[in-house]
Design brief:
single chain; mainly beta; 5-stranded mixed β-sheet; 1 helix; elongated
Length: about 425
């Protein structure tokens, strides 16, 4: 059967007019290119293979399907696949990314949808690879991905063009990594960039970095070839004066374009990236801990805050001021998966959301990346919990050492600042 599938795929790709033969229980059937007959119904029979991952080639069998691929659509649950070619009785398509574990397969012709009786099993493929850096690095070195050294990659973000930005806090450095160009470039080292923390991509695609001290930030703008500019937001006129120091991250609220940050002493502030004004939002949010912030893209009044020294994650409603425990137990480090109310973290740092609303957390002292799904179930996505190491490959064997930073791009690729291993890693979930 595999030989017959390969033959069909080859002919469908290479010929615009063809005859396909395939064997089913040793009985040969011949399929001609037959246009759709609007006076006859569309009939579906089966498809093969019945399982696979992203970009799996699939053959859908039926009758009166038509030969115009532009009039056909394939759906796996609610996600569209790609139609390549049709003979009228066979449709050749491509499976999309992450449509769900068990998929209902439907074929749509001119808006009319018909569903196959059998299901397609989607197999998730996860692979960890090193982008740049080396466990032996003892200095900063620019160059190609293979040549570059990153002695302390701490926090990370990625913009819409897949530029990766990494801060190295005790080396006072901001670094840009571009996989397509195969280059690692130091954008700024020292000269005022004192203890840079987690970078954030602003609405204009500039990257803003909070510093430990005072009210100071640095902005790196693609319109000026990423040259740095010092920013010191002033208190908004008519509002309370305050200082926000030891701030470790920024979070963009999508609906308003405002940036939020929290200080070590528990102050929460918002910053207008256009007017460069700051305004106090709240005080006394679990003082005595570094914190890392991210808004829920599905409900961006909800701000999620990981408290590293408190070993837990809270939510904060920016409209009501409600501040509630979300996952983990305050001041109790450990490692437990399961329902979020009963889980344990150990020094969680940066966090991010994917497009489906799942949360990924760099669980630093557990040496792994944890996931909190939409149902509130916590699990280790990659890394061997509580065991450090350096291994690329399948999630069953991949290992990390004190990852502090995590970010996700628009294609769902997860980037990890693997601090203890002195490199930036990539987690492709497909």
């Amino acid at each position: 059967m595999m030989k017959n599938i390969t033959s069909i795929v080859t002919i469908l790709l290479m010929c615009s007019a063809f005859i396909v033969s395939c064997s089913d229980d040793d009985n040969n059937e011949e399929f001609q290119r037959t246009p759709h007959d609007p006076n006859s119904p569309i009939e579906l029979s089966t498809f093969y293979p019945d399982s696979g991952g992203i970009a799996t080639k699939i053959i859908l069998k039926g009758k009166n399907l038509g030969i115009d691929a532009d009039r056909l659509k394939i759906y796996f649950n609610e996600k569209p696949g790609k139609v390549i070619e049709s003979t009228g009785d066979l449709v050749y398509g491509i499976v999309p990314k992450q449509p769900g574990d068990m998929c209902t397969v439907s074929l749509v012709h001119d808006g009319d949808s018909i569903v196959y009786d059998n299901k397609f099993k989607y197999i998730t493929q996860i692979n960890v690879s090193t982008i740049a850096g080396s466990p032996g690095a003892n200095d900063i070195k620019d160059g190609s991905l293979a040549e570059a050294w990153l002695p302390q990659p701490r926090y990370i973000c990625v913009d819409d063009e897949k530029n990766i930005f990494v801060t190295q806090i005790h080396w006072h450095t901001m670094t840009q990594i571009n996989e397509e160009k195969n280059q690692v470039v130091t954008l700024m080292r020292k000269n005022g960039l004192t203890y840079p923390n987690a970078p954030c991509v602003a609405p204009d695609q500039s990257v803003i970095v909070p510093l430990d001290g005072g009210n100071t930030f640095y902005q790196f703008d693609p319109q000026t070839q990423w040259s740095p500019r010092k920013v010191n937001p002033q208190v908004k006129s008519g509002t309370e004066n305050f200082t926000i120091t030891y701030k470790h991250s920024l979070a963009l609220r999508y609906s308003t374009g405002m940036l939020y940050t929290r200080a070590y002493d528990g102050k929460l502030a918002k910053i207008n990236p256009v007017t460069k004004e700051r305004e106090l939002v709240d005080i006394d949010l679990l003082p005595g801990s570094d914190s890392f912030l991210q808004f829920d893209p599905k409900d961006d009044k909800m701000l999620y805050i990981s408290y590293a020294a408190k070993h837990c994650i809270y939510t904060y409603n920016v409209e009501t001021g409600e501040h509630e425990l979300f996952a983990g137990e305050q001041n109790v480090p450990g490692y437990i998966d399961g329902e979020r109310d009963f889980t344990r973290f150990n020094n969680p740092h940066q966090l991010c959301f994917d497009e489906d609303g799942n949360i990924y957390v760099a669980d630093t002292k557990n040496h792994c990346i944890r996931k909190i799904d939409k149902k509130g179930i916590v699990s280790a996505v990659v890394g061997v919990p509580q065991i450090s190491g350096y291994v690329d490959g399948d999630p069953e064997v991949a290992m990390f050492k004190q990852p502090y930073g995590v970010a996700i791009d628009k294609d769902g690729i997860i980037y990890v600042a693997d601090t203890g291993n002195k490199c930036v890693r990539k987690l492709a979930i497909e």
